[in-house]
Amino acid sequence: MLDPKTIEIIKSTVPVLEVHGQAITRKFYETMFKNHPELLNVFNHANQRQGKQPTALANAVYAAAAHIDHLEEILPVVRGIAQKHRALGILPEQYPIVGENLLAAIKMVLGDAATDEIIEAWGKAYGVIADVFIRVEAEIYQAAEQEPGGWRGFRRFIVDRKVKESDVITSFYLKPEDGEEIASYLPGQYITVRVKPEGQAFTHLRHYSLSTSPGHAYYRISVKREEAEGDRPAGIVSTYLHHDIQEGDILELSAPAGEFTLDPAVQLPVVLISGGVGLTPMVSMLETLLEQDPAHDVVYIHAARDGSHHAMREHIIQWTEAHSSLRSYVVYESPAAGEECDKIGYIDLPWLQTVASANADFYFCGPTPFMRAIHQALKQWKVPEERIHFEFFGPADSLD
């Protein structure tokens, strides 16, 4: 427990974090990787370059500071981060490294304004926050290991099948090399792939949503090939999987993880909305819903650039034809000549109101601008926050 004086000091720094938070976290990562380059085997280099990881950490630090006297209020955020930490293999002994470099970054950015009293208070606060994460992560590690077919760390899987789904998305069917049982998962969860492409100095880890319902003897992930665009380089892992990994090859996976899942007790109609490769958790949810309750009212809307970028269209058509309770729609930004879709352009509220009801649970996933537009439309439609569910690919961002 923190003493009242420490809590007072931490809360007094919240306005400073709003202004300098990202500068502090950028300096933190720079310093930590210089002092501990081995951690580059864990962190996503692309998210570092694009500023996504520093932004996400700044938001997390800000939230912790603002709720330092009631940390239980941010437990849902803690659990989401802890799930990713477990999937990446973050260990308790790495937390002191983070704390040491975070305090150093605060001092470097704030200079004389970071008095000894403030640094001491943040040292105490970080210890409390780290203990919360370590405790939650220990529970998650234990649960993943004790799950039937579960495991700790990384397990070797064979690429049983590699299926091209569109010009940019390919599915990988993964079976355990040891032939033993694999852990089940909740629709919406992800697995983490660990690879070390030839010529790369470090291992690279990426989370990929499971793109089919649970209960199979394999896992399926559907990966978008991230090509170079403007200042953004090509995706190291996605291009490696597309170009180099073939059927029969081995991939290392950590057990399924994630907090973005379909509510198993859902009673209301469900509306699933995906953009691009954001279809992966949506397809898992769709299949699970209709396998467990074939009469459940489901609307599935998918947005893509055009038909060549649209993965699993035939698969969804087959499900729609087989289930009268499912209505599916396709939105193309710029369809090619002769391509059929239900709407040209983008999903907007007036059109959404013609194909779905506000009295539903909404789940959506896709690029951040896409999700921001969907979120704003649902808020404008007065859909209650508790019926709006979404997930970011990569570090958490803001949809406001």
TrEMBL record:
Binding site for FAD: Y190, F392, F393, G394, P395
Catalytic site positions: Y95 (charge relay system), E137 (charge relay system)
Keywords noted in UniProt: Detoxification, FAD, Flavoprotein, Heme, Iron, Metal-binding, NAD, NADP, Oxidoreductase, Oxygen transport, Transport
UniProt enzyme class: oxidoreductase
Coiled coil location: none
Domain Globin as annotated: residue spans: 1-138
Residues annotated as domain FAD-binding FR-type: 152-263
Positions with a binding annotation for heme b: H85
Family matches, as Gene3D superfamilies: Globins, Nucleotide-binding domain of ferredoxin-NADP reductase (FNR) module, Translation factors
Cofactor binding mode and count: Binds 1 heme b (iron(II)-protoporphyrin IX) group per subunit.
Taxonomy, superkingdom: Bacteria
A Pfam family that the UniProt record links to this protein: NAD_binding_1
Region described as Reductase: 149-400
Site (Influences the redox potential of the prosthetic heme and FAD groups): residue numbering on this chain: K84, E391
PROSITE patterns, per database record: FAD_FR, GLOBIN
Co-factor requirement: heme b; FAD
Binding of NADP(+), residues: G276, V277, G278, L279, T280, P281
Annotated catalysed reactions: 2 nitric oxide + NADH + 2 O2 = 2 nitrate + NAD(+) + H(+); 2 nitric oxide + NADPH + 2 O2 = 2 nitrate + NADP(+) + H(+)
EC annotation from Swiss-Prot or TrEMBL: 1.14.12.17
Entry note about domains: Consists of two distinct domains; an N-terminal heme-containing oxygen-binding domain and a C-terminal reductase domain with binding sites for FAD and NAD(P)H.
Entry-linked PANTHER family: FLAVOHEMOPROTEIN
Role, per record: Is involved in NO detoxification in an aerobic process, termed nitric oxide dioxygenase (NOD) reaction that utilizes O(2) and NAD(P)H to convert NO to nitrate, which protects the bacterium from various noxious nitrogen compounds. Therefore, plays a central role in the inducible response to nitrosative stress.
Family: In the C-terminal section; belongs to the flavoprotein pyridine nucleotide cytochrome reductase family.
HAMAP family: Hmp
UniProt name for this protein: Flavohemoprotein
Native organism: Paenibacillus aceti
Gene encoding the protein: hmp
